Amino acid sequence: MAVAAADVQGEKRQSLNVTPGPILLLGAPGVGKGTQAKELVAKWGIPQISTGDLLRYHRDHGTALGIQAKQLMDQGKLVSDDVVNQMVAARLKQPDTQVGYILDGYPRTLPQAAWLDQHIGADPKALPVIAVSIQVSYNQLLRRITGRRTCAACGTIYNIYLQPPRVDEKCDLDGTPLVRRSDDTEEVFRERMRTYESQTAPVVEHYRALGRFEEVNGEQPVDAVAAAVIAAVARLRS
After folding, report:
1. CA 85, 86, 87 angle in degrees (round to 5)?
2. Rounded to two decimals, what is the model's pTM?
3. 117 Cβ contact list (under 8 Å, min separation 6)
4. Catalytic center residues
């Protein structure tokens, strides 16, 4: 354990002088992208840019883009790439993005990736997007998703396979029966994986072909995954 901890600290020290620029975190549902994004935000003091957050912001503030998005969603339609791209473009004008930012859930498709590269490339001083994919095996992801249980009273999250409660299906803290989210099923997970793979595979190949892509092992402890992601960023920016 001491060696592993030293390795993690060494990776962190090695990347202290790296300018992160725009970083696209990729990974299937359940790999821990959100957790790793928070690690990078804390390390470099850069924002995490989520299209879900952008959509909510524009909708709640009644902006022109928010109104367009709401109209599409009310009709049961997907928000168009053009609307999402404009939201991203507006966000990238904010001063907190100058050193870099974490892209979460965008670009999700090849046309979005092509637009983003062109948009960023218009500024000769801007660093290009680099992509880091967190890899976790299908069976491990399935256990993470289908084993998830939550205490209805205090919100504590367990996993019956990886972090089970002391008493089966009951919260350790208050004894409340644990509940399973309706979408934490194998059927829903399979569909989400199919969608992810069909949409994201071209994005992966796009950045791989440009030499701006690396993979890291996501089946390690959180600190070790964070160190691997940071080291990948350092290599891609070297």
Report:
1. 90
2. 0.84
3. 128, 129
4. 33, 108, 148, 181, 192
